Amino acid sequence: MKNKIEISDLQVHYRDTSALNKVSFDVHENEILGIIGPAQSGKTTLLKVINRTLEFVPEASMDGTVKLDGVDISTMGDIYGLRRRIGMVLPLPVGLPLSIYDNVAFAPRAAGLRSKSQLDELVERCLQQAALWDEVKDRLSTLGTKLSGGQQQRLTIARALSHQPEVLCLDEFSIAIDPVTTMRIEEVLKTLQKEMTILLVTNLVQQAKRLATRTAFFLNGDLIEIDSTDVIFSDTPAQQATYDYINGTFG
Amino acid sequence: MNVMTTCALRKQKLVSQIITFIFIGIVGAPISGVLQKTYAADTEAASAATPLNTLSPLLDDLYTVLSISFVAILFGIACAFYLQEWLPQTNWVRRFIESVVAILGGVPSIFYGILAIGIFFTDAGTLKTVGIVRGPQDIGDGSALGPLSFQYDTPVFYIVVLTFILMVTPMTIKTTQAALRSVATPIREATYALGASHWQVLRRQVIPIALTRILATGCRAMSSALATVALIFGIYIWQYTNGPREMSNRFILFLSGALFLSIFSSVLIKLCASASADPTHPTR
Questions:
Q1: How far is B11 from chain A, CA to nearest CA, in Å?
Q2: Going from the N-terminus, what domains does chain B have, and what CATH number goes with each?
Q3: Nearest-neighbour CA in chain A from B268: distance (Å)
Q4: Interface TM-score (ipTM) > 0.90
Q5: What is the layout of strands, in order, in the sheet containing A214-219?
Q6: Fewest C-beta in 10 Å: which of A130, A222, B164, B243?
């Protein structure tokens, strides 16, 4: 299977604190990679490295290479182009202070799409994929920030899909969404898997079990284990720590 | 589609009104001044007693003060943007300017007034030579006082400009930086993650959110500039004249201008506090 992202010897420090220690693994094309682990294990940092928003953290320093489709991302000149290839959903919903329509149309417009009919079509499709269309189709011009927390989170998902990314990073997306809507979005993710590679950072181990093709377990900045989800969630994963975490012995 | 009465639209409307207001002021003041001067020159009979002739130097002064402080405010806003958005926090230039601004911005504006008065009034000889005061013996009737309009291309004029810049710029830099900082980091991060460039983030997110507050900053700075000038005129009247009508008119005009602008800026701040409650803190 083709590798979409190749990470080798990735090290990240925040001043003296180490966030990721010599992490190496590959992400296959069109898979859902579940990333689990307790707090402070470097999951969010990993996503920030991939879309190069770690550069906004002044005290962070990075070593190692991350390749997207075989190209080292740190050598890419068009950083905005790179970010458009990667969709990002952050844990807390951030509705931009724009109308719902403009929220979703922001990234395509920033990329240069101007045609009204194409934008309309894109906005409708993304909102439908994020299971939000039925609730907002009559009030697309109201502020995105007026929506409820769960709706805003689905709006962020629609926004992340709006620039048709190759890789979709979801950072604990279901934290503000009710279980029923979460299930609907999970169904959507399964269909999206055919078009894109999905990195699913989650605190809900059962969510990783439901969705992920493979699962990686991080602890204190170390990659403890990465294997197919069936193996990780079996009674005999390679590492005892993985078994303990999944079964609630700690974390 | 819902009615388009969103916060953003209301804000846009307000901003366009303010810009029009300022524009009319800048264009209108000199035009009216020129018209009135021509009128006065044409009709010899129109002496210092006509209200129009009184109004002309008055507006000249107002125009000078407003334009100087306007330029100083624009300069301050540009500085603040550069410091906040482009220079990293650890840069020594930024640290230096911020500490200078903190010191200058903490000085009450009355001290700048005193500084300006010191320059204006300590050396009556200098004032005479540059033509601001013709000498105490002339001050009997209002007409002999002459327009106190700042004379261009004189040292005093440049000192006044410098005083304004010293007073207005640090205040503007400080408050504009605060306004830019008030734009929540998650909003910036989310916009960057969508592949927007720095400029797009500024233009589409940061500036619309911070604009009301920046405008309020400008109004407040301009208000304190006007108040300082009013103070200078007040002391001028008290010191040198028995209260000719023109001078007290100026004092009242500048003081009321300052009052109006400070009230206006408070309204703007109030407005942006109620408006920004939504965008910066998403409801959860």
A1: 12
A2: 56-181+194-274 (1.10.3720.10)
A3: 19
A4: no
A5: A86-89, A167-171, A197-201, A32-36, A214-219, A222-228
A6: B243
